[in-house]
Design a protein that fits this description.
Order of helices and strands of chain A: EEEEEEEEEEE
Structural class of chain B: mainly beta
Distance between the termini of chain B: 41 Å
Structural class of chain A: mainly beta
Helix content of chain A: under 10%
Largest interface: A-B, 34 and 26 residues
Number of strands of chain A: 11
Order of helices and strands of chain B: EEEEEEEEEEEE
Number of helices of chain A: 0
Radius of gyration of chain A: 13 Å
Helix content of chain B: under 10%
Number of strands of chain B: 12
Oligomer: heterodimer
Number of helices of chain B: 0
Chain lengths: ~110, ~120
């Protein structure tokens, strides 16, 4: 049973560029959440997608946007990259009405902005 | 907004011994869920144990157990018979009961070192 798959695993971008990260949820899950984990910190909630709509958003600017496809996979887009966007980006999947049982996380995408 | 505090940046324990990781949280809600996640060097967050706030009984999963003190807003993790594979970052997380859309609020983590 495939877990959560994220691509790419590592990425280096230049300030001002745009980046797209991808996530395939665990089989059977219908909800995808994205988190940003800066070095030495806990993950911070960016937003969550269910039924192809953004359902909730954390304290992140509009430069961060996303999308969910009919097959439940998701993309995270970040525009006008800043040095401070360098972090590990984690995708987590769950059942929308079963999220209290926990989330399944991927291994993340390490984004470095230079 | 809820906050989660882990006051121990790093803990060290001898193999086969018991260690307790601390977590406190701040919330005005009465119904919520608490989690402990493990993050090894592979970076994947792995669910260790979960606790529903409305349950008085402390959750247990094999060698892992929690001490949930709702009035004190405390949620500590006890690892018994520590093994080398337990070495990782451990994160305490909070989730509102309000529905499917709420994300997790994490603490800053505790780095657990297992001494052979």
């Amino acid at each position: 049973d495939a877990g959560v798959t994220q691509s790419p695993t590592h990425l280096i971008k230049t300030r001002g560029q745009q980046v797209t990260l991808r996530c395939s949820p665990k089989s059977g899950h219908d909800t995808v959440s994205w988190y940003q984990q800066a070095l030495g910190q806990g993950p911070q909630f960016i937003f969550q997608y269910y039924e192809e709509e953004e359902r909730q958003r954390g304290n992140f600017p509009d430069r961060f946007s996303g999308h969910q496809f009919p097959n439940y996979s998701s993309e995270l887009n970040v525009n006008a990259l800043l040095l401070g966007d360098s972090a590990l980006y984690l995708c987590a999947s769950s059942l929308y009405w079963g999220a209290n049982y926990g989330y399944t996380f991927g291994s993340g995408t390490r984004l470095t902005v230079v | 907004a809820q906050t989660v505090t882990q006051s121990q940046p790093e803990m060290s324990v001898q193999e086969a011994e018991t260690v307790t990781l601390s977590c406190t949280y701040d919330t005005s809600e009465s119904d919520y869920y608490l989690f402990w996640y493990k993050q090894p060097p592979s970076r994947q967050m792995i669910l260790v144990i979960r606790q529903e706030a409305y349950k008085q009984q402390n959750a247990t999963e094999n060698r892992f157990s929690v001490n949930f003190q709702k009035a004190a807003k405390s949620f500590s993790l006890k690892i018994s018979d520590s093994q080398l594979g337990d070495a990782a970052m451990y994160f305490c997380a909070y989730r509102s009961e309000g529905g499917g859309a709420d994300g997790l609020t994490f603490g800053k983590g505790t780095h657990l070192i297992i001494q052979p």
